[in-house]
Structure formats: structure tokens, C-alpha cells
Specification:
This protein is mainly alpha-helical and 228 residues long. Helices cover 65% and strands 8% of the residues.
Length: 228
């Protein structure tokens, strides 16, 4: 039995309007994309402009030029090991491949220099340069770099070479991950999209409250009350 019809049906009307707007949001009417995809791409484009850390990371990695390291890297399988070996060799390292394991000896600074060159190309959406350099998909190259650095970090930590492990972690998180995540995204400045950004934030708050009040009005119209 509905106790307060006006309140109940008002809540129902709000819920129906909420669902209608939700359906519109998921329709591909925003340049061929739905609303969530459009805003996700917009915020990624805006954030990309402020996530270019490679020059600063290179300043840190250059301090390790001339620092010779020897590491054993365990890859996921023999295929990944074969794909990863050229990445390290392009940085001047000597690499021995045995199944899914790599024995690497080389100048840490030079290895990271090559990694940062690939990351920089990917960050600037020049994947053709990276794929042409190694002969396979550029995204896979960056994925292999990430795994190689992770394995290097682990092995150097075991050797108690903590400074070397730290700079590898820095390259992995600030260069390789950003290059992979932002690949093929065109950077935009927030100034040119400030109206859309402001509207989307205000809309999110209002839309969330809208749903909450719709639920509250329906239940209170039904005769249910929250008690302390």
C-alpha cells in the first residue's frame, strides 16, 4: 500500500528520468563513442600532457652510465625471452638465452638509455619506430621491457644493489608504464576543454544525488522511514 502517492510517484518519475539519461550516456552519440568512453579519452588526453617524466628519469638513469651489472632474468616463457634479448642487446648488453631465462651482462645506464628511447617514441605515438627496430608489435615491445625491468629489479635487490634497483623501478613506473598506457592518445590542454570538464564534474555530483533522492522518495512514499 502506498502511503504517500505524490512522494512515491515523484520518486518513480525521477528514477525513470535517471534511467533515460543513463541509456543516452551509453549510446554512441559522442563522436561515435558513448559518454563514458568520450570522457575517459578526454581525461586521459588531459592527463597525458602532465605525465611526461622521461627527461627527468633520463637525468637519473644517466648517472648509471658505466655501471656494469650482471643479472639473471626469468621470463614467462622461451618466446618472451627470445623477444626480450634484442631489447637489452640494443643497449650494448651481452645476453645469453636459455629457455625462458636470460643471463645479461652490460652497462646499466646504456640499457636504460635504450629503454627510455623506446618509451619516448611510444609516448609520442611513434610506434612504427619501435616495431621497426625489433621486428614485432610495439605494444609487445613495451610489455617485454616492463617484464625485463621487473626481473632486473628483483635480481639486483637480491644482490643488494639497491641504488641500481631503485633507478630501474623509476624507469619502469615513470617511463615504460606511461608510454604503454598513453600510447595513441593525443595530449590536450585542460584550458581548451575547461567547460566540458567543469560540466562533467558538476553533472556527476548532481546525477549521483538524483539517484539517491529518487530511491529515498520512493521508499518514503511507500511508507518506510529511516529511524535512529
Amino acid at each position: 500500500m502506498i502511503a504517500h502517492k505524490k512522494e512515491f510517484y515523484g520518486g518513480v518519475a525521477m528514477m525513470v528520468a535517471f534511467i533515460v539519461v543513463l541509456v543516452i550516456i551509453f549510446m554512441p552519440i559522442f563522436g561515435g563513442r558513448n559518454g563514458l568512453d568520450y570522457l575517459d579519452n578526454l581525461y586521459n588526453s588531459i592527463s597525458k600532457g602532465s605525465a611526461y617524466y622521461i627527461p627527468k628519469v633520463k637525468e637519473e638513469s644517466d648517472k648509471f652510465v658505466g655501471n656494469l651489472v650482471e643479472v639473471s632474468l626469468v621470463m614467462a616463457d622461451s618466446e618472451q625471452a627470445q623477444q626480450t634479448a634484442p631489447l637489452l642487446m640494443k643497449g650494448g648488453a651481452l645476453v645469453n638465452v636459455s629457455g625462458g631465462q636470460l643471463k645479461v651482462s652490460g652497462d646499466l645506464g646504456r640499457i636504460l638509455e635504450n629503454c627510455l628511447a623506446d618509451s619516448d617514441a611510444m609516448y609520442h605515438n611513434d610506434g612504427g619506430q619501435v616495431s621497426g627496430k625489433y621486428g614485432y608489435d610495439e605494444r609487445r615491445v613495451v610489455f617485454n621491457w616492463w617484464n625485463a625491468l621487473k626481473a632486473m629489479d628483483k635480481d639486483l635487490t637480491k644482490q643488494e644493489k639497491f641504488k641500481e634497483a631503485k633507478v630501474i623501478g623509476l624507469v619502469q613506473s615513470k617511463a615504460v608504464e606511461c608510454a604503454y598506457n598513453y600510447y595513441k592518445i593525443e595530449p590536450q590542454k585542460i584550458g581548451g576543454k575547461i567547460g566540458i570538464v567543469f560540466f562533467s564534474l558538476v553533472f556527476y555530483v548532481i546525477y549521483t544525488l538524483w539517484y539517491g533522492f529518487a530511491i529515498m522518495f520512493m521508499f518514503e512514499g511507500w511508507g518506510m522511514k529511516l529511524q535512529h
